[in-house]
Write a structure and sequence with these properties.
Length: 103
Amino acid sequence: MKRIERRIQASEDLDSTVAYYLDIAGVVLSKRFLDEYNSALIHIATHPGTGSRRYVQLSDGAELRFWTLKRFPYAVFYIDRPDAIEVVRVLHQSSDIPAHLEP
């Protein structure tokens, strides 16, 4: 299983989503979201090639993939690097995803 690295923007996405769930529903739902996110990371680290390539190629030529959470409307966007999985963004599926992924 590959190690996980998170870009600053992905960390900010995660923090704001957890804060949102804390605000609207409390600790239980925010913890469920984090559990679901961590389960997705385990899957991605174990099977990095299973994520969809639907969106874009990044400017450095890296292939961007994403994996959706099962019980929350979020997707984890990542790059499968030789030595690690690089999490680029954690985005709500109804957001303007292409705009969020622009450099």
